[in-house]
């Protein structure tokens, strides 16, 4: 058994909750991923992942093992990057695009680490919620939430996960009728995040399937920060990634609504053209981002 690959596979299974996705990420078969997990379990003498034909769950022992080994794995990768930089230092320009909310909240520490490791790369960042046609060459690398891509010339690398949920101030929920089902939302003040990538609807998980629902919006905006602030001031209910509202949740200003219908996991991916797969600047930035979120997962 290649124990390092087995540990990597197990950590990715914990993050992705899918053997199939891990197999794609590691360029292995799902059967090989399962074999790695079984070999680890045999060596450790304990069950790490409960598996049935339809679902899987990480055991308590598995969660503990992940908490212990994932930081070590990320640290090892960083050490390998630092050592390899003596012979292979990326150079030139790297143009990166991300959504305003994700990029504004989470890219700064990654940029700091990257500049320390690779000072010869000239970085530039475009934060926008508008769609980016990466094939036009305006940017080299794009971070986006759960992209659906038909263009085979694009490579998609999962970086981290969050969840898409509804949020409201506790005071607001006391002032309006109780919400027990999606249909109850029509009687509430709903604040909509509007941009060209999203249709005029919210999406929910119901009976194991994604459902799109058009609702009566109180008002709309293309700025997530404005929606977060309005919801935190008891103006209504929003739908947003949990990483976007984490600070408000920690302060008790927002709580989750209808959690059973939240979309989880919500995957944030790095996207670039297949023709750029040998770009050292792109490769090192993507790997650094993956390792950063392995150590510090998104809310």
Automatic annotation (TrEMBL):
BP GO terms, sorted: DNA-templated transcription
GO molecular function: DNA-binding transcription factor activity; sequence-specific DNA binding
Keywords: DNA-binding, Transcription, Transcription regulation
Gene3D superfamilies hit by this protein: 3.40.190.290, Winged helix-like DNA-binding domain superfamily/Winged helix DNA-binding domain
InterPro entries, per database record: LysR-type_TF_proteobact-type, LysR_HTH_N, LysR_subst-bd, WH-like_DNA-bd_sf, WH_DNA-bd_sf
Location of the HTH lysR-type domain: 1-59
Protein's UniProt keywords contain Nuclease: no
UniProt keyword NAD present: no
Record family assignment: Belongs to the LysR transcriptional regulatory family.
UniProt protein name: LysR family transcriptional regulator
Native source organism of the sequence: Thalassotalea algicola
């Amino acid at each position: 058994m290649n124990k390092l690959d087995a540990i990597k596979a197990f950590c990715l299974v914990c993050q992705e909750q899918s053997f199939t996705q891990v197999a794609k990420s590691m360029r292995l078969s799902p059967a090989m991923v399962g074999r790695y997990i079984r070999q680890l379990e045999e060596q450790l003498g304990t069950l790490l992942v409960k598996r049935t034909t339809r679902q899987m769950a990480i055991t308590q022992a598995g969660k503990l093992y992940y908490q212990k080994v994932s930081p070590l794995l990320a640290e090892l990768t960083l050490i390998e990057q630092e050592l390899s930089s003596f012979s292979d230092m990326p150079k030139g320009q790297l143009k990166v695009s991300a959504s305003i909310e994700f990029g504004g909240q989470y890219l700064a520490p990654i940029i700091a680490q990257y500049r320390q490791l690779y000072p010869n790369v000239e970085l530039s960042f475009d934060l926008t919620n508008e769609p980016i046609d990466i094939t036009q060459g305006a940017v080299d690398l794009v971070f986006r939430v759960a992209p659906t891509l038909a263009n085979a010339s694009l490579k998609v690398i999962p970086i981290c996960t969050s969840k898409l949920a509804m949020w409201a101030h506790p005071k607001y929920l006391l002032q309006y009728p109780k919400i027990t089902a999606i249909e109850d939302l029509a009687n509430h003040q709903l604040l909509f995040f509007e941009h060209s990538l999203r249709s005029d609807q919210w999406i929910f998980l119901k009976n194991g399937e994604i459902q799109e629902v058009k609702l009566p919006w109180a008002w709309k905006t293309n700025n997530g920060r404005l929606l977060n602030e309005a919801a935190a001031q008891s103006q209504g209910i929003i739908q947003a990634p949990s990483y976007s509202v984490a600070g408000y949740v920690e302060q008790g200003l927002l709580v989750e609504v209808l959690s059973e219908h939240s979309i989880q996991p919500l995957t944030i991916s790095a996207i670039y053209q297949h023709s750029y797969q040998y770009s050292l600047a792109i490769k090192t930035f993507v790997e650094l981002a993956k390792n950063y979120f392995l150590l510090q997962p998104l809310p």
